[in-house]
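All the exercises in this workshop are built on plain-text protein records. An example says more than a description, so a record of this kind follows:
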Amino acid sequence: MQTLTTILAAAAPTAIYSLLIWWLDRYEKEPLWLIAVAFLWGSVPAIGLSIVFELGLQLPLAASTIGPDVAGWGVAALVEEPIKALALVGLFLFMRHEFDGPLDGIVYGSLVGFGFSMTENLLYFLRYATNLGMLFWVRGIFFGLNHAFFTSLVGLALGAVRYRESRSLRLGAASCGLALAILFHALHNYATRYHFAGLLASWLVQSSGVLVVLAVAVLAWRNERRWIEQELREEVLAGVISAADYAELSVPADRVRRQLRALLGGGWPRYRRVRRLHHLATKLAFCKSQLQLADRRHTCDERDQLRDQIVDLRAAIERDEPRLAA
């Protein structure tokens, strides 16, 4: 029973925070398998590699003139943040068609961080089970966003240069994001040495950083909505989407209402069709905007394929309507 309670204490806050991040991606949800990959990288390989490298570095540093104190709060940040960032670099290089900008970078980075913090918290809770209540509130609640915040800085930096062709600019942005992640992580570890005052100061700093990241997410929402409104207007005139589809695509609440009506009126198959229609139309808007930004990984062929898929899907949905009405 104690073990189950410990697992729930580590997993429950993570699940809530992850759902909030998933909701943050309002217009084009990332594929679930990529979300799982990001989360699993943080929760298993990143933790394992961090433990190995931290032990390997702390021992010689503790014996050097730097001393065990600096080794204790500095090494973790220097090791953990680059290892967590590896997943983001991999997604950016090999899955760029699913890495559309700063918001996607925030989502992927946060999920890597949540995976890492969940496993790290579980290890702490198991080791210090007698202080589970206090650790749960401190690590799981008050500082539950820490690792997500740190890693999201790297994702945000990569997303900001998503459509830039300069390799040096991309490398510079990634380096700056990683440097900030290491800095905030190290400051947090250093502040914990000063007990309550240090914890409070760290919480204020990290909370301010989270608010800045959320502000960037809101700006990204506006940008994505503008893409949808501008790029899909001509698709209505061409008959690819209907005027009703166009009106609801840029309003997340209207999308949800349409999908809910489909679920209640036609069951799961119709819900999936309507949801896929929204996904393909949004993807078409993003693809067209990216073509204008000279993203070489998107082609006119892909744009035309998306149009054909939308037309076929709309026809299938419309064929269902008379049958459901009867």
Q: What stands out?
A: The mean pLDDT is 88. The radius of gyration is 23 Å. Residues 46 and 112 are 9 Å apart (CA to CA). Residues 252-292 form the longest helix (41 residues).
